[in-house]
Write a structure and sequence with these properties.
Elements: E1 2-9, E2 14-22, H1 23-36, H2 48-59, E3 67-71, H3 84-93, E4 99-102, H4 104-120, H5 123-131, E5 133-140, H6 144-154, H7 163-171, E6 183-185, E7 198-200, H8 201-213, H9 221-235, H10 243-262, H11 285-289, H12 292-307, H13 329-346, H14 350-366, H15 376-391
Parallel strand pairs: 3-5, 6-7
Antiparallel strand pairs: 1-2, 2-5, 3-4
Length: about 400
């Protein structure tokens, strides 16, 4: 691997290093990238004809456009006098942390071709392919926000990253932090939160994004780019507290309090005044409150209350939890389930309408000027009335 050029990218504050590498060496490197990095994108279905042509072209010695990689590392700075060998040795050592920003399908095609030649034992073609040159660009010293920004801009117009992938890259550093006993589950782990302090990573991030944007609707590709700008602005303010952690702990504290106040409540359809159209929103207290619709509604509502000076900041909210009044738990939760069942029956987009309901519910519950302040049952009724006014 030979270093050809080094340029500083002022937008993302990282160095772009251009290397020349043998295809054989890149093939070996790609195994670490694709097999060991949990945040690397997976293969997507595409035209087999196009990549069959690329395989044939590679055998004839065509030049593949540069593949763009990134290595997130805050401690390694190429400007600190490192020699070329030190840089290349470091990248090779840390290759399992490399992420492909642009060229994923080309990489899979290169791998497929090597495997085909190895299976057919075509030693002559394999030797010729192995020695061919490939150019790769590596962003070194780039942070997670920069990785996502470059990945989004480089792949515009191509097969888009899944929302899960975008979100996991953007917030992946939080998976390595001590979150006070809270566990965040990656969607790729294919696990359902079962413990009281377990949450889906993607859902918590969507709730936090709703707090930043003051918008309960789910994230899309454009909102991720806007979220990058929001996080960059926040990072320049040298805040004493980490807003993501503040949001997570505030929501987790709410769930813990409500589950405790519910006193082992479980749904009993015999206590309802009317028949539901389907399954209840939740059959126990934990299932009632650990839903993505509540997380986004909570985030957007608290953000709005801060904007309206009804509360100072996120850290004020947990101080109110013990004063929340549930009244008769069974009657209150039946009211909650019945209202949500109505929304399910009439909504064109159920999830979005539920998010709207919870946005107004939490605004009623935590607004000191509201007649429903800290009264759970009254907040349900007021939020439902607001929902009807806005949708009918």
């Amino acid at each position: 691997m030979k270093l050809i050029n080094k340029i500083f990218d002022n937008r993302i504050k990282a160095y772009n290093l251009l290397f020349e590498i043998n295809l054989e060496d890149y093939y070996q490197m790609s195994k670490s990238i694709l097999d060991k990095n949990e945040f690397q994108r997976r293969r997507v279905k595409s035209s087999s004809t196009v990549y069959s042509l690329l395989k044939r072209d590679l055998l004839e010695g065509c030049i593949v456009p540069p593949i763009v990689l990134a290595l997130s590392d805050k401690d390694f700075d190429p400007e600190k006098g490192f020699e070329e060998k030190q840089i290349t040795d470091y990248i090779i050592k840390e290759q399992n942390r490399l992420i492909i920003l642009d060229g994923l399908q080309r990489t899979f095609t290169i791998r497929d071709l090597f495997k085909d030649l190895e299976s057919s034992k075509d030693e002559e073609s394999l030797k010729k392919l192995s020695s061919q040159k490939l150019r790769i660009e590596i962003y070194l010293g780039i942070n997670k926000i920069g990785i996502l920004y470059r990945m989004l801009t480089l792949n515009t117009g191509q097969t888009p990253m899944s929302m899960r992938h975008q979100i996991e890259i953007l917030y992946s550093d939080y998976l390595e932090q001590d979150l006070g006993g809270i566990t965040l589950l990656l969607e790729s782990q294919d696990k359902t939160p079962k413990g009281i302090k377990e949450y889906k990573f993607k859902e918590i991030v969507e709730g936090f994004n709703s707090y930043l944007d003051r918008d309960y609707l789910p994230m899309d590709r454009n909102s991720v780019l806007e979220n990058i700008e929001s996080l960059e602005k926040l990072s320049t303010k040298n805040l004493d507290n980490d807003l993501f952690v503040d949001y997570l702990k505030a929501y987790d504290g709410l769930v813990q309090t409500l589950v405790e106040k519910a006193n082992d409540w479980e749904f009993d359809e015999k206590t309802l005044d009317s028949t539901l159209s389907g399954q209840p929103f939740g059959k126990d207290a934990m299932k009632l409150f650990k839903r993505t619709q509540l997380m986004t509604g909570f985030g957007s509502a608290i953000g709005k209350l801060i904007d309206f000076n009804s509360i100072e900041d996120l850290n004020d909210i947990p101080n109110l939890y013990n004063d929340i009044q549930l009244g008769d738990v069974n009657s209150t939760f039946n009211n909650y389930i019945t209202k949500l069942d109505y929304i399910r029956r009439v909504a064109k987009k159920i999830g979005n309408d539920q998010r709207m309901f919870f946005h107004h519910f939490f605004r009623e519950l935590f607004d000191r000027k509201s007649d429903s302040y800290l009264d759970f049952n009254k907040s349900i009724d007021e939020a439902f009335s607001t929902y009807l006014r806005k949708t009918q």
